[in-house]
Specification:
The complex is a heterodimer of chains A (519) and B (227). Chain A is α+β, with helices and mostly antiparallel strands and 519 residues long. Chain A has helices at 9-23, 30-33, 40-58, 65-75, 85-100, 142-153, 160-172, 176-206, 213-255, 260-306, 315-325, 331-342, 350-354, 356-360, 363-409, 417-425, 430-434, 438-449, 454-460, 473-483, and strands at residues 108-113, 117-122, 126-130, 136-140, 414-416, 451-453, 490-504, 507-518. Chain A has 20 helices and eight strands. Chain A has a four-stranded antiparallel beta sheet with strand order 5-8-7-6. Chain A has a two-stranded antiparallel sheet with strand order 1-2. A two-stranded antiparallel ribbon of chain A has the order 3-4. Chain A starts with 8 loop residues before the first helix and ends with a strand. Chain B is mainly alpha-helical and 227 residues long. Chain B has a three-stranded antiparallel beta sheet, with helices on both faces. Chain B has a three-stranded antiparallel beta sheet with strand order 4-6-5. Classes of the chains: A alpha+beta (519), B mainly alpha (227). At the A-B interface, helix 10, helix 11, helix 12, helix 13 and helix 15 of A face helix 1, strand 3, helix 4, helix 5 and strand 4 of B.
Chain lengths: 519, 227
């Protein structure tokens, strides 16, 4: 006999599972984790979730890796860390893709469902989608939103209805300031519900087997309650706020002018009116989308009944393991295996063989035709590869100079290359800087120049926007200026050779001595 | 006949026929007479029609030489002078990517929504390092190659080096580009990750992984061992 108080226990455990996914995170990178004190990354992850909630639900904007990264960079000084744009982006990618998205893999947690036994529930706090610009954008899932909602806002499930009542009370008490934020909360809830609906729709389109009828029922019930019962209440609120606005207008006409307090109230009423209108708009949109979802759900269910579910074999056992044991003794042998493995997936290659024009033409033309396609494809790949290589090299040079300036800003007057090198070692992209000896070559270049003179470069006014993959100080400055116009308050850095020797791995060179002039 | 040929042509050109993109052709396809005719084409020309809700795919039979790609494509994908072992490596990477996406057990084979290139490299690192420890050196013929050879090639390459085309990262990128050309995956996030297309999801879940293909899959490896 299971005690009544254990009914719904799995919901409590779901919350524990969510917390577990953050504090006992998987796919951890030692290189990144060691840069932070204990619990600091937990705080940053929660901050990111809050940012995603605010951006996507309150401001209704797209949340990309770049916007999240810019937010992370902004809060890092609170953790006594100043990261460059690239460093912040590396950290953000790690937290979003490796941790919160579990590298794209599902994360499961076993919870006791009293009466049914242990069940595995998927844990996913954020989901992504591709926007119209083909960029990946992030938003909270239902689980993520519920978790965030409980961590601060309220601890019950009355949701929309109670939030509406709160708004009504605030307006009737003329507490417009609080009513403004309360009206925003309502919009946030509605946007969240719309996102939830879209995520559900996309999940439904991808695989009906991954969702349960219960999930569908809950979602539809909640949306119906928001729409059918609460739409009238929202209209009442609109009437109340219109009345409040009218009263203020009368007052303004009577006295000719409003005092500061009333002016603030007027502005607040305008904001509330706009928010309430937006909320009503969202309710109407949800109504339409909800109808489409119902239709889609029925269609997919009908399809899944009409088409038998296919039983699948084990890919690893049947394909991957045999591949590790196979012995290839000829090209035909390899051709035979892989053509057979990939034929069912690759596009039919009819054009090359059965194109009528080619059949009637002579044999050499076929060869030429094939070669021209292949050369074109190869050429495109080469070109793209070359472009990527150049871009990557340019980025590394900018990273080195940016890190040098940012490091110099933290030091009074002088420091050694060894100190700077130690700092670089703690950065997630350290190994990128050592590739092709780019870090050492840059240092030697700076030594050749003797002075890294930002003031002179600024006065000359020459901006370099392109670079061919070779170190170009002017190009580095131009890039840094775009994101750090103050250049960390550095005016110039003189570079001198020191007598002692710096060695790392197989590299050995004279240590360098940097003298900094600041604004 | 004319309607069946039109559909056949469409399937050869695009590999699929979708109800929303070509409603009239799709409606013709639903006509049992046309469908029977297409199935006869399939029997004679060596292909199967994979019919899933709203879409039909043309899938060449595994031993169909007329409609298939050839290993030549794979070698050219690695480089004009690619050796057999490099072609084997490329093929193995492609299969590993498919495994990472669709290696899930039970009724839900798709286990990931995206794959980062760095994670594919790291998965291959693990697989190949295990191979080096476990596999024997002896081969039946001195001209033969096996998994250990591709593991050695892999290990000899740097992970990333801007100046070289033969890096582990680049090998994975090539495999991804090949999959992209066949409309199976797409690059995202400045080519740091790939995601599957609807085409790949449909084909894997509704056809490729079908348990009824087990004999066919087993037969591939029995010929592969040269027996």
């Amino acid at each position: 006999m299971i005690p009544e108080f254990l009914s719904g226990f799995e919901k409590r455990m779901e919350l524990a599972a969510v917390v577990d996914s953050i504090v006992n995170r998987r796919n951890t990178s030692e290189d990144i984790e060691k840069l932070f004190e204990k619990h600091e990354l937990d705080n940053i992850i929660l901050s990111i979730l809050t940012f995603i909630m605010e951006t996507t639900l309150t401001e209704n904007q797209d949340c990309t890796i770049e916007t999240i990264s810019s937010f992370v960079r902004g809060i890092l000084p609170e953790y006594q860390k100043n990261y460059s744009i690239e460093e912040a982006e590396t950290l953000t990618r790690y937290l979003i893709k490796d941790i919160l998205q579990n590298k794209g893999d599902r994360r499961l947690y076993s919870v006791m469902h009293y009466g049914s036994g242990m069940v595995e529930i998927p844990i996913r706090l954020i989901s992504d989608k591709i926007n119209s610009d083909q960029k990946i954008v992030y938003e909270l899932t239902r689980q993520g939103y519920n978790f965030m909602f409980r961590t601060k806002e309220v601890d019950d499930e009355l949701g929309f209805e109670i939030e509406e009542i709160k708004l009504k009370m605030l307006i009737s008490k003329k507490n417009y300031k609080k009513a403004v934020s309360q009206s925003r909360e309502l919009i946030r809830m509605l946007i969240n519900k719309r996102n939830e609906l879209n995520q559900f729709t996309s999940q439904l389109r991808n695989s009906v087997s991954t969702i349960s009828g219960d999930e569908y029922d809950t979602l539809i019930r909640e949306i119906n309650s928001m729409l059918e019962q609460e739409y009238d209440t929202m209209r009442e609120i609109r009437d109340m706020i219109t009345l409040a606005a009218k009263r203020l207008e009368d007052e303004e006409q009577r006295f000719g002018v409003l005092d500061d307090k009333l002016k603030t109230a007027k502005a607040e009423i305008t904001t509330i009116t706009a928010n309430v209108e937006t909320a009503l708009d969202y309710q109407r949109t949800l109504l339409t989308e909800c109808k489409s979802l119902k239709k889609l759900y029925l269609e997919v269910l009908t399809d899944s009944i009409a088409y038998n579910k296919i039983k699948t074999y084990n890919f690893e056992e049947k394909i991957l393991t045999p591949l590790t044991q196979v012995e290839i003794d000829s090209e035909e042998n390899l051709d035979s295996i892989f053509t057979k493995l990939l034929n069912p997936l690759f596009l039919p290659a009819m054009n090359r063989f059965l194109n009528l024009n080619l059949v009637y033409d002579n044999q050499s033309k076929i060869k030429k035709y094939e070669e021209s396609i292949l050369m074109h494809e190869e050429g495109m790949a080469e070109e793209e590869l070359y472009r990527q290589v150049i871009e990557r090299k340019n980025n590394v040079y900018v990273q080195i100079i940016d890190s040098l300036l940012s490091f110099a800003s933290l030091h009074e007057n002088k420091f050694l290359f060894t100190d700077f090198f130690e700092h670089l070692r703690s950065l997630p992209y350290f190994h990128d800087l050592l590739e092709n000896r780019m870090l050492y070559l840059t240092m030697l270049k700076l030594y050749e120049y003797r002075v890294v003179n930002i003031t002179r470069w600024q006065t000359e006014g020459i901006r370099t926007k392109d670079c061919n993959g070779e170190f170009d100080l002017s190009y580095c400055f131009s890039c840094i200026e775009d994101r750090q116009p103050s250049f960390y308050s550095i005016l110039s850095i003189s570079v001198e050779k020191s007598d002692n020797i710096f060695s790392y791995d197989i590299t050995s060179m004279n240590n360098l001595f940097f003298e900094v002039k600041k604004a | 006949m004319r309607r069946a040929l039109k559909i056949y042509r469409k399937l050869i050109e695009d590999g699929k026929l979708h109800d929303k993109d070509d409603p009239s052709l799709y409606a013709d396809y639903k006509d049992s007479e046309v469908r029977d005719m297409l199935e006869s084409f399939g029997e004679e020309l060596g292909f199967t029609l994979v019919d899933i809700p709203h879409t039909v795919y043309l899938v060449p039979d595994i031993d169909n030489d007329l409609l298939s790609f050839s290993l030549r494509d794979m070698r050219e994908n690695v480089a004009s002078s690619a050796r057999l072992v490099e072609a084997f490596l490329q093929c193995y990477i492609v299969m590993t990517i498919l495994y990472l996406f669709y290696g899930g057990k039970n009724n839900n084979p798709k286990q990931r929504t995206f794959l980062q290139i760095k994670d594919v490299v790291s998965e291959l690192d693990t697989q190949f390092s295990n191979a080096s420890e476990e596999m024997q050196d002896t081969l039946e013929s001195k001209y033969s190659i096996n998994f250990k050879n591709i593991a050695e090639i892999w290990a000899s390459r740097p992970i990333y080096d801007d100046t070289k085309r033969t890096t582990r990262h680049e090998a994975v990128m090539r495999a991804c580009r090949l999959l992209e050309r066949h409309k199976l995956t797409e690059f995202y996030d400045d080519k740091r990750e790939i995601r599957t297309t609807q085409r790949l999801d449909d084909l894997m879940i509704n056809y490729y992984l079908d348990e009824r293909r087990i004999n066919e899959i087993n037969s591939i490896f029995s010929t592969g061992r040269g027996n």
